[in-house]
Amino acid sequence: MATRFEKYQIESLELAFEESEHLTKERKIDLARVTGLDMEQITSWFNRKRACKRARESKGELEQINAVLKQSLQELHSRKAKLQMELKERKRREAELEAENELLKHRLTVLEGDSQLDSVIR
Fold first, then answer.
1. Helices (H) and strands (E) in the chain, counts
2. How many of the other CB atoms lie within 10 Å of CB of 17?
3. Cβ(21)–Cβ(47) under 8 Å?
4. Torsions phi, psi of 117, nearest 5?
5. Distance between CA atoms of 104 and 99, rounded to whole angstroms?
6. CB 41, CB 47: distance < 8 Å
7. Is the dihedral of CA 76, 82, 88, 94 positive or negative?
8. Does domain 7-121 have CATH number 3.65.10.10?
9. Which UniProt keywords apply (predicted)?
10. What tens digit of pLDDT does each residue of 87-101 get?
11. CA angle 18, 46, 8 (to 5 degrees)
């Protein structure tokens, strides 16, 4: 079972960690004397403290990346919606132009027919 450290021991370790995340042998010996902990306990505490700090930093970085990705996704959804509207409008315009083209072809056919009729009459 893990031994719980006393408040004064944790405070001493925290203070030492703020000064430096890596201890020299002399500083470990000094901390062992001040806290009453053995060097292995001090080394383990520092290792856990560094691991927790890295984990918090990694979590912060991942949260930032996540926020950027969410923003990018939202922008892509907006862009997709805009492009879909543009495509719909272009298809509508294409249908209009095709209808107009058919009407003009029909008129041309009628005019060509009238023209042939005129030449027959003359």
1. 3, 0
2. 16
3. no
4. -65, -40
5. 9
6. no
7. negative
8. no
9. Coiled coil, DNA-binding, Homeobox, Nucleus, Transcription, Transcription regulation
10. 999 999 999 999 999
11. 65
